[in-house]
Amino acid sequence: MAEDTDRIERQILLKASRSRVWQALVQPKAFGQWFGVVFQDESFAEGEHARGRITYPGYEHLQFDFLVACIEPECRFSFHWHPYAVDPNKNYDDEPTTLVMFELEEASGGTLLRVVESGFDAIPAERRAEAFRMNSQGWDEQMENIQRHVATH
């Protein structure tokens, strides 16, 4: 079976209520705490950009920006962004974006969080593989981060 190069999928069982996990996803302050961003915005809204400053060590010089695609309360939250857009001298605005989709599901012992980032095949070839690799590693880390966040907040 060929490896899928267009999408990254992760899931984790979080020992927290669905509403607790939902708040960690859609409240900018909470999202930023586990994701490593300080947002300018007080809330996320469909069709609006969410912007902030990255606080993750080594990337503090970068701005963070995504376009909210979907907010379905306690079910689904998604946004479009430029994956691994880390060169401060490059304008990524003309590049396609990927779609990040978070889905919540009731599960025995907590909430199943599924994350799918898709659309890598449309990213320019010269940076596609690195963006996929770095975001794949990043989602592994972010699953641990949100797990710690919902356990302690």
End-to-end distance: 41 Å
**CATH-defined architecture:** 2-Layer Sandwich
Number of domains: 1
Structural class: alpha+beta
State the low-pLDDT regions, or none.
none
Percent helix among the residues? 25-40%
The description of the largest β-sheet is: 7 strands, antiparallel
**How large is the share of residues in beta strands?**
25-35%
**Rg over C-alpha atoms, rounded to the nearest angstrom:** 15 Å
Counted by DSSP, the helix tally is 3
CATH class: Alpha Beta
Judging from the principal axes of the Cα atoms, what is the shape? globular
Give the tally of β-strands. Answer: 7
- CATH superfamily, please? START domain
CATH topology: Alpha-D-Glucose-1,6-Bisphosphate, Chain A, domain 4
N-to-C order of helices and strands: EHHEEEEEEH
Q: What's the average pLDDT?
A: 95
The strand line-up of the biggest sheet is 1-7-6-5-4-3-2
Give structural notes.
- There is one protein chain.
- By secondary structure, this protein is an alpha+beta fold.
- It has a single domain, classed as 2-Layer Sandwich (Alpha-D-Glucose-1,6-Bisphosphate, Chain A, domain 4).
- 29% of the residues lie in helices and 34% in strands.
- The protein has three helices and seven strands, in the order βααββββββα.
- It has a seven-stranded antiparallel β-sheet with strand order 1-7-6-5-4-3-2, covered by helices on one side.
- Helix 1 crosses helix 2 and helix 2 crosses helix 3 (125-152).
